[in-house]
Amino acid sequence: MNRLQQLLKEALDEIEVYGSWTSLYYILKLLVESEAEKLCREQEIIYHMTVDSLTLFTIYKYGEGIDKTRLFVLSFLLYDYLSRHYNLQNPIFSIKWNKRYFIYSPRIDSRLHSLSKRGLLIKKNKLYYLTQLGISEAESISIGKKDSMKVDSIVASLKSLRKVKDIKIFIRKYLIG
């Protein structure tokens, strides 16, 4: 299978498995904007982390119940760091400062319901928690020791911020460099 076929299969899965038309749209948009011939020549990518595993890993690393805003933000930060060292499936993040979820991923959003149905996480009082099955799944994701320390540092930085306003300021500074 080549990269183009892989992305088309992912687009179909977004509808058939996760029920996300928005994710389908963004994947198709990515395909239209890409060079089709180049994608046909590229081999299929074997992901170190899928969007499902990134979501579980994010909740696991946070270490306690996490709300949706922090989940999207932390997933974005972890994806940004880990994708430099590993092959990660693209969660398709968007940033819109005037929205409730100023960092948003339709793929992660659609996964939350699916992971809940599979018994890997639960939602209680607007917070997401991993079940024992979700914890064991998240623990099976391995990254290097140096990367693990950096991830822990990112999590600690986010946990130190109490207000959404502070998180937005942190993200703006992070994006600027």
Task: Provide a descriptive summary of the structure in words.
This protein is mainly α and 177 residues long. 61% of the residues lie in helices and 7% in strands. The strands form two sheets. The chain has a two-stranded antiparallel ribbon with strand order 1-2. A two-stranded antiparallel sheet has the order 3-4. A hairpin with a 2-residue loop joins strand 3 (121-124) and strand 4 (127-130). Helix 5 (68-82) runs antiparallel to helix 8 (145-159). The longest helix is centred in the middle third of the chain and has 15 residues, at 68-82. The mean pLDDT is 95.
pLDDT averaged over residues: 95
> Structural class from helices and strands?
mainly alpha
Number-wise, the strands total 4
Number of helices: 9
Helix content percent band: 55-70%
Order of helices and strands: HHHHHEEHEEHHH
- Rough shape? globular
Major sheet size, sense and barrel closure: 2 strands, antiparallel
- The N- and C-terminal alpha carbons lie at a distance of 37 Å
Per DSSP, what share of the residues sits in E-state strands of 2 or more residues? 5-15%
What strand line-up does the widest sheet have? Answer: 1-2
**Radius of gyration over C-alpha positions, nearest whole angstrom:** 16 Å
- Which blocks of ≥5 consecutive residues have pLDDT under 50? none
